[in-house]
Specification:
With 314 residues, this protein is α/β, with parallel strands linked by helices. The chain has helices at 11-22, 39-50, 67-70, 94-112, 148-167, 189-198, 218-231, 248-259, 283-289, 297-312; strands spanning 2-6, 26-31, 55-59, 76-79, 119-125, 171-176, 179-180, 203-206, 212-213, 216-217, 237-240, 246-247, 265-268. It has a seven-stranded parallel β-sheet, sandwiched between helices. Helix 1 runs parallel beside helix 2 (39-50) and helix 8 (248-259) packs across helix 10. The chain is globular. The structure holds nicotinamide-adenine-dinucleotide and uridine-5'-diphosphate-glucuronic acid (UGA). Uridine-5'-diphosphate-glucuronic acid is lined by residues 84-86, 125-127, 176-178, 188-189, 192, 204-206, 211, 213, 248, 271, 274.
Length: 314
């Protein structure tokens, strides 16, 4: 199988490259190394796959990349490239979000028209829901994003379903819920906490820490992503969660217990744009993708801590 992975140098994209190469696929990666976080980190993400003979990296922005030639002979597209990060999507930065999340997706979907593709898997996000009274969140729950980022991810989903219905592009959208594990983006909570704990600095907690998240381990996310390319219904949307919901306070306790450190917590105001709670109903993914999350939070955090200590020389 030949696949195209956009955002290949990122956290999730680099893990997906590894999994597909290990399964015998040929992988073309596209990434433009945006400056949201340092290129050096993304180069490290790619270190293993760069040496694989079935992997090619095309360094380009999706807004300019020669997509028709890159898509030649491709059977499955995994579209992960985006400007991620919820809290930084206000103000002038929004232009980057519209470029990387809406315009880039529209250009890719145009290029996917009239091609014999098996699937186009698009990374969406739990942030499309916003604050919803009823938990767990079902695919049919109201979609009222509370961040500009969430609005761009919802636009991405709408574009995907339009191209599925009007041009039979076989798109499947996956609403990933807060992903963690080795190589987690440096702006995300556990990454930030590990960096600060290593320097004996206080952890900044937005709000009182009672907000909850359905944290999802990276291997489970990759498993669901690969399954969606094999079994996902064209035009469908799936929640991909980790199977449990914990408060940030509980997650911090689990993390710091692994490091045997008593953290100093610095409480700050809640961040505008953050959802208060996330919790995925994954019944649909279980039934249609046969997806079951396998890695509980304590084990996933143990692996992230182990990776962090190895990669930081700690
Ligand atoms: P990441 O920032 O690590 O990876 C995204 C990659 O896309 C980066 O390497 C970046 O350079 C590249 N990119 C961005 N715009 C591009 C463009 N226009 N052209 C080419 N390359 C471009 O992010 P991630 O955490 O791996 O997230 C991957 C996807 O999953 C994103 O679509 C994100 O919105 C979605 N998602 C992530 C999470 C999470 O918890 N990490 C949760 C829900 C959804
Ligand atoms: C994550 C990803 O960063 C988004 O790209 C993704 O779209 C989203 O999940 C999703 O599920 O769709 P978030 O849930 O904010 O967003 O993940 P973290 O950055 O790991 O934050 C988790 C919680 O910790 C949030 O409540 C946040 O406010 C809090 N936090 C984060 C802190 O209290 N302090 C920090 O230093 C960082």
């Amino acid at each position: 199988m030949q696949c195209l992975i956009t955002g290949a140098a990122g956290f999730i994209g680099s893990h997906l490259c590894e999994r597909l190469l290990a399964a015998g696929a040929r992988v073309i990666g596209i990434d433009c190394f945006t400056d949201f976080y340092p290129r050096q980190i993304k180069e490290r993400n790619l270190a293993t796959v760069r040496t694989h003979s079935a992997f090619t990296l095309h360094e380009a922005n999706l807004l300019e990349a020669p997509l028709p030639s890159l898509l030649r002979n491709v059977e499955v597209v995994f579209h992960l490239a985006a400007q991620a990060g919820v809290r930084t999507s206000w103000g002038r930065e929004f232009a980057t979000y519209t470029n990387c999340n809406i315009l880039a997706t529209q250009r890719l979907l145009e290029a996917c028209r009239d091609r014999r593709l098996r699937r186009v898997v698009v990374a969406s996000s739990s942030s499309v829901y916003g604050d919803c009274d009823e938990l767990p969140l079902r695919e049919e729950s109201p979609l009222r994003p509370v961040s500009p980022y969430g609005i761009t991810k919802l636009a991405t989903e709408h574009l995907a379903s339009l191209y599925a219905s009007k041009f039979t592009v076989p798109v499947v959208s996956l609403r990933y819920f807060t992903v963690y594990g080795p190589r987690q983006r440096p702006d995300m909570a556990f990454s930030r906490f590990l960096q600060r704990l290593a320097r004996d600095e206080p952890l900044e907690i937005y709000g009182d820490g009672t907000q909850t998240r359905d944290f999802t381990y990276i291997d489970d996310i990759i498993d669901a992503t690969v399954r969606s390319a094999e079994r996902g219904l064209a035009g469908a949307v799936y929640n991909i969660g980790g199977g449990s919901r914990v408060s940030l306070n509980e997650a911090i306790e689990t993390l710091t217990a692994q490091l045997k450190k008593a953290p100093h917590l610095l409480h700050q105001a809640p961040q505008v744009g953050d959802m208060r709670h996330t919790f995925a109903d994954i019944t649909k993914a279980q039934a249609e993708l046969q997806y079951t999350p396998r890695v509980p939070l304590a084990e996933g955090l143990r692996r992230q801590v182990e990776w962090f200590l190895l990669s930081s020389g700690g």
